[in-house]
Amino acid sequence: MAGTWLPFRQIHLDFHTGPWIRDVGRDFDAEEFASVFAEAHVNSVTVFAKCHHGHLYYDTRHPARHPGLRKGLDLLGEQLEALHRRGIRAPIYLSVQCDEFAAREHPEWLALKPDGAPVSAGPFSAGWHIVDMSSPYQDYLADQLDEVLRKYAPVDEIFLDMCWDQPSSSKWAIDGMLREGLDPESEADRRRYSRLVVHRYMERYKRMIDRAHRGRAVPVWFNSRPLSNLVEEKKYLRHVEIEALPTGGWGYTYFPLNVRFVRVFGLPYLGMTARFHKSWADFGGLKPEAALLYECCQMLAHGARCSVGDQLHPRGTLDRAAYALIGKVYAHVERCESWCEGARTVAQIAVLRPAEEYHTRPGSASEGVVRALQELHHQFDILPPGAGLEGYELVIATESLVIDEKLRAALRRHLARGGSLLVSGRAALGADGRPALEELGIACEGESPFGTTYFRFERELSAAETGTDHVMYERGLRLRPARGAKVLARVVEPYFDRSWRHFSSHAQTPPDRVSPYAAAVERGRAITIAYPIFQAYATHGNLPFRRLLGACLARLLPRPLVRLDSPSFVEVTVTRQAKRTVVHLLGFCPQRRTPTLDIVEDIVPLRNLELSLAQDSAPGRVTTAPDVRELPFAHRDGRTYVVVPELRGHLMVVFE
Length: 656
Prior knowledge:
Distance between the termini: 20 Å
CATH topology of the largest domain: TIM Barrel
Low-confidence stretches: none
CATH superfamily of the largest domain: Glycosidases
CATH class of the largest domain: Alpha Beta
Helix content: 25-40%
Number of helices: 14
């Protein structure tokens, strides 16, 4: 749940400006600057003290002051004053590991690869050099931060960017590793030391900010950290920002995957997209209004605040067309706020997620589980393996997870409380190759020798599809049901695996016969799927994979919170305020228009959608929002039924 201090309508205003541009701030007008944001319904703007080029944009004698910045112009100071006069919050940005000025002046501060080469884009590439935070650069940056705090405190927030773990083989890093008893020749120890360095400077800079405000809790955000690190890094933070530019390489799955993880930590949080057609600094690139509306409404639907990225022109002027676009979207966000303020997201399912890198690997199990469950309209959170499972009706352990002793005990307690469990692929086995849980009711004969097999639904799972063989493109396990377990789907094996020795036709070998092995096994409240089905769905998008999952989930969760008769691309999330339940409907459909870019251009209206919500008692009334219109409803058998007359992009259905 986002905190009330965190504004809903934010702008992240990049200003990475190279030293070769000589007219920086020439046309800057403080009043016009602030008025553009006010007219666009913006109530927070992150402005720059220091950029990736290492240049400073405030009143300072530091040699890193941008050489092209207009003489006498305190750009940061004037921005802060103008925004605050309008009642607009103004966090301050400083770049951390990207500093071209420091890299040129102090090449000995550069992070080095094991072969001694600098960590950089290369001598003939237009890219960044990466400095080593174990070098004296850390003190250099501390002095800059201290100057900003002395000049401008109290500040609204400090945003520190480019803070990933950076292994280095510099003399500074080697000396530091030796002091810690680590081996500089070990890649694992270099990574271990880089994490230690980051945590130490996070603590140091946070303490500096608190001290400048006499202990008052001022938000500080360290960007570019893997969000799975929140388990250990929550103590350094007062909120979370999820940078996720769908058209900039993150894709449209990254935000829903990570917000479902972030929201369980109890910190305020926001989502950050951008107005650009592609990624950061895409000058002249403007995304369609439908895309920006989708991205911001998706944030609202998950209980997040909204942030839209832009970049100020070097001369200090804003793109009016960009703020006409942002203003239209933020006008809608503003109208929705009263149904989003203080709202808690609701979930029946807990998906256990192992630690991952900053960017989720395409085709991963994490990506697949988000797509499948969203398309099936289930309500779910994503948890670290050590999190508590109380309050969740169903737990999913995907194939990327390892069930250790601690997690095994937690899953047994969950099942003993009457909860359900779905396990897929290798997660069903312990390190010794034996079943991870006796309660799964499986015996395993190892991996299938076939890289591609088929599965066939048993009548109990899907009478409509019995006798039909569905290809599974990923290697599975050879499972048999133990005593008391039943087979829900069977494995059909091919004649042989395709190879140069023997092949038939253009692709996988056709099915030969039903094997004695199970594709899905049910015992009590637990179901095991023999395949890495979530990775398979993310990689191949084969709809029978989702149908298999949907049929299993229907058995494990017979009373889903939401049922919706709609196309699968419609996203549904449920939030609760004190006296009402709000169902967000998002009817946007990204299209792959280039080899790497999904575009949302049009909003196609959907009509007469049948929606039901699990409720023990009937609500007093059901309305739409933000346009408040009464909807007729019926309540029977523990569900409230309504028909949504029309969905144009985003709509909230409010049960009071």
